[in-house]
Design goal:
- The protein has 16 helices and 31 strands.
- The protein has 592 residues and is an alpha+beta fold.
- The longest helix is centred in the middle third of the chain and has 17 residues, at 208-224.
- Manganese (II) ion (MN) binds next to loops.
Length: 592
């Protein structure tokens, strides 16, 4: 008797009409075979799907060049198909689920003709974790199958776990003919289904990542009483040998991956990596919040990554294990056959092939690597990996950080008075674009909890859900806002960032352990100058003051902008957060 899973696969194959169906087992040998097929048989616009790189310097590494129109997530083609539009909220594109399914069925009819349909069984989270989820994705390209093997725990175990159930997490993926006009990433929360066509790009095609682990999982979390968040998870080991676990939500382009494996500038402090992108947060039986990283790898932006900015990622990329490491849309050094990108250490090589496969002309003004070129690497290769990474229960979180790229207004670090004020800080979070040429100070985009593109339901309801989680915690983590990017009037960064960020973490963990003071201000608790460990840092007293200054006029704009942002969620906006806004306004008007 066919299982519900087998019946589902037959149904998809009946629609998409692949030449063959292959059930993956996630083994090393299988990944090698798929890479061989990608090198010898599959092509995108005439280029093989995989190409060998220099295995002496980057062991077991392969290059992938995507279709030139398919280089990033496509938010405008991403839909969350709840039964009614209001549940999806103003933060999502919405289509009626029946209409969306009819459209996807039409686009998918025969879309795998002549190709292989790979069935990928995988777990998000440690297989023994009560918080893990068993999932199945089908795809018709080896690049996605091999990437999923790196990014998830892929094995037949997921099939056994699903057994006779039919409510497993489902993903249908086909690259179609890469036509951007026929590209859609559709989410069906009621069916735990993601259906994606027309793109092979990570965020659109590795359906366990953003699509399931954030969009669908955030909705599951709302129903089941947990949180799926766009957060780094790290442990901070102090000189006493104690480790404090912390999560941090930062929008793209704010250095989340660097932070996840930062090298500390303070002796005796070490960062232990648990995750660089996604955290699932559950209320433990002891009333504390526990985090697991459901992923098993890194899918990070290559440009800007170097021994200076992120030495531990460079070591990860060069470690070489039985997991392959993939480079997508970087440039290639023609002489050494190594991947190359802007910001990598050393001189730019003389002979480069750019991300589109052409000989690079440095005078052209173009970049050799695509600005969103990526690496895909197993987390097991990370030298700073926490020994708790494989703990099925996850780690207890003592502090949660919300940050963004803000040239003004927001202090280097601020501690919220309580959970509600913390949620208010997260809900108001924003980041400035780095398009310095467009506007000197960048354009501010509100991105609550760094979840705007990833929250699978109405954000007003999402804020309420955050508040309800707080009510269940007897020992809630403290919540902080961070901002490494404050500048002076000339646009000079006031804070050195990178490894010196540990000085801010030191204050945070000392606060959590009630070892250090703070001063109360209308916006929250700030360190007094003597509370921060600035030993050995070349920073003036004036710059430290500027990092913590609170400008009434700037805060006036901040509040007005936040108020406008909240207004779009209408009645769904929790009254507690509106009260926080009024409270902040009143405190700033008063004497302090
Ligand atoms: C990512 C993103 O790729 O947030 O992680 O865009
Ligand atoms: Mn991300």
């Amino acid at each position: 008797m066919a299982t519900p899973l087998e019946k589902w696969i037959d149904k998809i194959a009946g629609l998409t009409k692949p030449a063959r169906v292959y059930w993956c087992d996630g083994s090393e040998e299988e990944a090698r075979r798929l890479i061989e097929i990608g090198i010898k048989e599959e092509k995108i616009e005439g280029f093989p799907v995989f190409r060998d790189l220099n295995h002496k310097t980057y062991p077991n590494s392969y290059y992938h060049r995507s279709h030139p129109t398919d280089v990033a997530r496509t938010e405008h083609l991403t839909y969350v198909c709840h039964r009614d539009k209001d549940t999806a909220g103003p933060n999502n594109n919405w289509m009626d689920p029946e209409e969306a399914k009819a459209l996807m069925a039409k686009l998918s009819s025969g879309c795998m003709k002549g190709r292989t349909m790979y069935v990928l069984p995988y777990m998000m989270g440690h297989p023994q974790s009560p918080y893990a989820k068993a999932c199945i994705q089908v795809t018709d390209i080896t690049y996605v199958a091999v990437s999923m093997r790196i990014m998830t725990r892929m094995s037949r175990y997921a099939i056994a776990k699903i057994g006779q159930k039919d409510d497993f997490v489902k993903g249908i993926h086909s690259v179609g003919d890469f036509d951007p006009k026929k590209r859609f990433i559709m989410h069906f929360p009621d069916d735990s289904l993601v259906w994606s066509i027309g793109s092979g790009y990570g965020g659109n095609a590795l359906l366990g990542k953003k699509c399931f682990s954030l969009r669908l999982a955030s909705w599951l979390g709302k129903r089941e009483g947990w949180l799926a968040e766009h957060m780094v998870v790290i442990g901070i080991e102090d000189p006493r040998g104690n480790t404090t676990y912390v999560t941090a939500a930062l929008p793209s382009a704010c250095g989340k991956t660097n932070l996840a494996m930062m090298e500390s500038a303070l002796p005796g402090y070490k960062i232990r990596t648990l995750g660089d992108d996604i955290a699932w947060l559950n209320v433990g039986p002891n009333g504390r919040l526990y985090a697991i990283n459901p992923e098993n790898g890194f899918f990070g932006v290559a440009p800007g990554t170097s021994m200076k900015t992120n030495p531990n990622m460079m070591r990860t990329l060069k470690k070489g294990t039985f997991f392959p490491t993939l480079f997508t849309n970087t440039a290639i050094n023609e002489e050494t056959n190594e991947p190359w990108w802007e910001g990598l250490d050393g001189e730019r090589p003389n002979k480069l092939i750019d991300w589109q496969g052409n000989r690079f002309n440095p005078g052209s003004g173009n970049k050799a690597a695509h600005p969103n070129s990526r690496f895909t690497a197993s987390i097991s290769q990370c030298p700073t990996l926490s020994k708790e990474f494989e703990n099925p229960m996850g780690v207890p979180i003592s502090a949660m950080l919300f940050g963004g790229r803000r040239a003004h207004t927001i202090p280097l670090v601020t501690e919220a008075r309580d959970w509600t004020q913390g949620v208010f800080i997260g809900a108001r979070m924003g980041s400035e674009t780095t398009a310095a040429a467009v506007h000197r100070e960048g354009i501010l985009r509100r991105d609550p909890m760094a979840m705007l593109p990833f929250c699978g339901y109405n954000m007003g309801d999402y804020f309420n859900h955050w508040l309800s989680i707080g009510r269940k915690l007897t020992h809630p983590p403290r919540i902080f806002s961070i901002n490494w990017f404050r500048t002076d009037d000339k646009g000079r960064f006031l804070w050195p960032g990178f490894g010196d960020n540990i000085r801010v973490f030191k204050w945070i963990i000392d606060r959590v352990n009630n070892r250090v003071g703070a001063r109360e201000t209308p916006v929250g608790h700030l360190p007094r100058p003597e509370d921060l460990d600035l030993k050995g840092l070349d920073i003036s007293k004036e710059d430290v003051e500027r990092l913590f200054s609170i400008d009434k006029e700037e805060w006036g704009k901040e509040i007005a902008d936040g108020e406008q942002f909240f207004a779009q969620f209408g009645d769904r906006m929790p009254k507690e957060l509106i009260e926080e806004l009024h409270g902040l306004k009143a405190r700033l008007k008063g004497r302090w």
